[in-house]
# Entry
Amino acid sequence: MAARASTLEARYENAKEELEALEKDARRAGLRHEWEKVERLFVGIHKDAKGWANAPAALYRVALTREGLARRSMNPADFKAAVDRYEEVARRYPRSALADDALFAAAKLCMERLDDASAARKILERQLREFPKGDMADAARAMLSGGKSEARQPAAPAANDTTSGSSKDGDALAVLRQVSWKVSGNDAQVVIELDREARWSHQFVPGDERTGRASRLIIDVDGARADEKVRPGARISGKVLSRVRVDLSVKGRTRIIIDYSDVERYDVDAIAGRPYRIVAKATRSTKGLPEGTSAEAGVSVRKPQGKPKDIAEQLGLGVKTIMIDAGHGGKDPGAMANGIVEREVTLAMAKLVGERLRAAGFKVLYTRQRDVFIPLDDRTQMANNSKADLFVSLHVNANTDSSISGVETYYLDLASTSSAAKVASRENSVSEKNLSDLQYILTDLMLSAKTQESRDVAGMVQSSMTKRLASYGGAPHGNGVRSAPFYVLMGARMPAVLVEVGYCTNKAEARLLASSKYRRALADAIVDGLMRYKRKLEGYASR
Ligand SMILES: [Zn+2]
# Structure
């Protein structure tokens, strides 16, 4: 027993050190599998620890590790798993000193991270019933009363308030679709996109140099809920912005918290329409934003009226420059079957699409115009550096099932189907990052990705391709618009889509892909779709 305990003790101490080291290592802490590795250490120790004095602590650390992962992935499933583990501690070790801490930790996650006040209340009530004199009892009582008052808050905005935008659709909640930001030089702009007009207010809290507290702009949108795609937050390392978070812990209210590392003046205003956009601008230059408010003016609370403005001017919308990315190249041939080599088809297609776009008046840039290898990261970086307005990546698909054919258009998001995940996994294979890492990285990028716009572009390109290609004998049916975590689309600051022009593994489609007539038709179709998107934006601008 003594020998076993000493081995367990050593393993436990080692696992604790691993956890500590991981928390301090920003790079590794960004990777899901690193957390799961440490979690497995504690799970293994706990499994072997029956009767050992530290068994409850080992299980508690399983929960703690999962919570550490959840705080980085912001994935509700991870928070839920941490809650389950904490509850397991209390269930299996009711006499341990950690039991009430575990219940309180579980309740806190339910309340603050899972937006589930009723689950939190149940856990807290159980904690107070079973451990009324525990050291966490006061904290539980405090949270319990706070939770109740929150639950009484009205979920919908007052209908007769005309001091700011009010919902036109009765009680229907506005949906927060996307929060995006742009930092250029001394200026930062955060755009909050809602599907309809909503009542909102903001307050500015100046930073404190002595305590190092950041200046903070808080925007509350009443009666709004968040699209499930919106993630709770991301850190930004920049000269102006340092952090953007979305707080959904109060039902019927969406709070966007923007922390600035350095700000002189700021301005918040809305652009009417659907989508309805709230735009927060800030500058660290004393000369910028003459219409803005000085950041030194103290705490300010305003309820401004949303004014319609020229949306194109406000957001710098409009498509002038398009970057075309011919997939693969050089040492990376891409998919190969039936005499088709992906890197060759994509390069030929890129040139056809580029010629047509140039003729239509766009400025066209290419990630490659020769048969060279370009790492995936470099491709979106090129688009960002050249300030392209659109990024279009061209690829040829492949499948082990040769009966599958068709055109597909993707935008960056978590995979929408398992076959979409497979396509992403194949296209990502040239990168050393694995799919679970990408899912993790995505949670941070989701807020900055132009998901909504990219979905629009993808839809227009896809429908234009299916229409045009329908006339081809035995023409492939469109497989639709899908989302998947494509590494090549990550980090793009403009709407970005990936077009799979067909399956080389399908004999009939491979024959089509080899024909220059079919390639021209494909190029026409892609350009048509992009033109439709451009016209849609111009429609916004002239409205
Ligand atoms: Zn490819």
The radius of gyration is 27 Å. Residues 2-150 form a domain with the Serine Threonine Protein Phosphatase 5, Tetratricopeptide repeat fold (CATH 1.25.40.10). The longest strand covers residues 174-184.
